[in-house]
Amino acid sequence: GTIIDDDTAGVVVDPGDGIFVVEGDAADAISIVLQSQPIHDVTITITTDSGQLITEPGFVSFGAGNWDQPQQVAFTAIADGVDEDDPHQVPIAFSVESDDPQYASMWLQPLFAAVGDADALLVTIDGPTAGATGMTSTFSAVVNAGGSGSITYGWTAFLQGNEVASGNEPVFEFAPEDPGAYIVRASVGDEHGQNPAEFIEFDVLADITGSTFAMDILWLAEEGITRGCNTEGTEFCPDDPVTRAQMAAFLARFLGLTDNGGGNTFVDDDNSIFETDIAMIAAAGITRGCNPPDNDRFCPNDEVSRGQMAAFLVRALHLNGDSSGSAFIDDDNSIFETDIATLAESGITRGCDATGMYFCPDQSVTRGQMAAFLHRAADLLP
Description:
By secondary structure, the protein is an alpha+beta fold.
């Protein structure tokens, strides 16, 4: 009789829900199986862009014993460091080789893998978080990763939601006219149209332009040691004297203190907003009170003299200097002479006049001077 073969030669490539891989992430896979038993082995080779995908294995083979058993082929996307469309399509081709005439040179429809890009633009802004009216501050857009072809930049500065300045260079210089809380935003794009936007909050003070201590005050603001002298945070009051309570807050933030020793160290600071700061510098051994020998009072509203300030800083920084030193000619009768000499030896003070011969130990410390003292002292922190 006549035997009619109703088996149709063919290759079934099953991509499931589609091939989607992300550069440097987990693999995705397809399965391949034959539709009929071949009379000779069938080898299917899988080829793709070797710079985009790793194929494992690169080929599969079927014979009489395994023709109906699906085999898996996995694809892993390579993190190539090149910014590309996200996702971008990568073709996958198949070639069939066999001495079986039913399978020899059989053509298979190619597939496409969707590859998620891990090299999109990653942008940060390098710039200050504090400034002053009339003083130029500089911001830079830094491309940390990704980027392909020509990079474009766009800058905008906003005050209370209103645009006040803009530019289109990698470096943006801005001299604010008004005090307040600004947002400075950078938008950066490349040939793929990605347009990540980063922003920096920029607090502008109104009353330090022209101050001898302007840069020290800006450093203080950058470090979060000052919050200004008014509710809006737009003024620093550089010429105002520093009270003992304010000094406690400056030092607590400067040193990063957290231990308040149980709190309520003194009897006269219960109504002070700086009570916790006062307790913390007491716990750290920086203050001993203001009424020896009892020392149960702190005198939070008293102004800090330059001599007292020297003692506070020497204790805060654990400075050890030459106890016999006499750095200035006007502190010989001061109980703080040793502290003042130690402060001068450490480079934190340069005196109170242009000659550098006087320290003015009994004068009140201004907020601007305090900023300078702390700025210089920062180099001595552990």
